[in-house]
Design a protein that fits this description.
Elements (H helix, E strand, L loop, with lengths): L1 H20 L11 E10 L5 E10 L3 E7 L2 E9 L1 E6 L5 E4 L3 E4 L5 E5 L5 E10 L6 E2 L2
Antiparallel strand pairs: 1-2, 2-9, 3-8, 3-10, 4-7, 4-9, 5-6, 5-8
Amino acid sequence: MKTDKIFSLQGIAILIFIALVMPITVTAQIKGIKRTDLQKHDISVTGKETVQARIDFEPHVAFGKHSHPGEEIIYVLEGTLEYQIEDQKPIVLTAGEVLFIPAGQIHSAQNHSNTKASELATYIVEKGKPILVMKQ
């Protein structure tokens, strides 16, 4: 009986370890959008970290309104993406173009084209907070 408890605790410890060393993942994937987290590091600013991810958009797919607990810097890798930040005029970017989204700003992204589009997103965010907060 005591041995079973020890094995159970060891199993839980192993699962926790695996969860900590696995790459960062988004809790829910949106159909037609693939997020690949590339790296996550503490930075020299206390309480902040940087997270970098590649987001691939299938044709005619949108990522709904959301915000981040820090700044987002976008570099479009391929295709064309349209970004809507708060109530501003939509911004259309093509491969090689960049965009800065201030902390907490509600925004969305859409691929209106017939081809795949991808972006490299770099976040400078508060540690311990969810990287993404969806809005309704």
